[in-house]
Amino acid sequence: MVKFGYTILYVEDVEKSIAFYETAFGFSRKFITPENDYGELSTGETTISFASKKLASENLSDGFIESSLEDKPFAIELGFITENVGELVQKATSLGAVLVTEPKQKPWGQIVAYIRDLNGFLIEICTAVGE
């Protein structure tokens, strides 16, 4: 059996990124390495992990495309489910996230909004499908 364990985001400042996700979304810190180059957050079934760009460069000798608020987001998003999309969007943007789209109701009833985190990663904040 294969189990999806975690997603790793390559960031400039692991501690700052983890603190943002803790404060904005209420996730709990699992750990950060003593070197502050890798850390994890408990988010429920899966883990969001953060690796410093320096550590990522050591692991990926051919390099990688860095996420940045100055560029368009990657063709991937993190999806966070909540009962109050507007409230969570407001909290995250008050802490430095950038609003991409205001909460909108989809034809199937789901409320969906998009923001970008401090590093430019795209986050969908939504209600559960069918609610």
From the spread of the alpha carbons, the general shape counts as globular
Going across the biggest sheet, name each strand in turn.
Answer: 1-4-3-2
User: Averaging pLDDT over every residue, what do you get?
Assistant: 95
Number of helices: 3
Low-confidence stretches: none
Query: Percent of residues in helical segments?
Result: 10-25%
Structural class: alpha/beta
How many extended strands?
Answer: 8
Series of H and E elements: EHEEEHEHEEE
Largest sheet: 4 strands, mixed
| Terminal CA distance | 30 Å
Task: Tell me what the structure shows.
- The protein is built from 3 helices and 8 strands, in the order E-H-E-E-E-H-E-H-E-E-E.
- By secondary structure, the protein is of the alpha/beta class.
- A 4-stranded mixed β-sheet has the order 1-4-3-2. It has a 4-stranded mixed β-sheet with strand order 5-8-7-6, covered by helices on one side.
Concise overview:
The protein is an alpha/beta fold and 131 residues long.
Please supply descriptive tags for the structure shown above.
131 residues, 8 strands, alpha/beta, globular, single chain, 22% helix, 4-stranded mixed sheet, 3 helices
Secondary-structure topology with pairs:
Elements: E1 6-11, H1 14-25, E2 28-32, E3 38-42, E4 47-52, H2 53-59, E5 78-81, H3 85-94, E6 98-105, E7 111-116, E8 122-126
Helix pairs in contact: 1-3
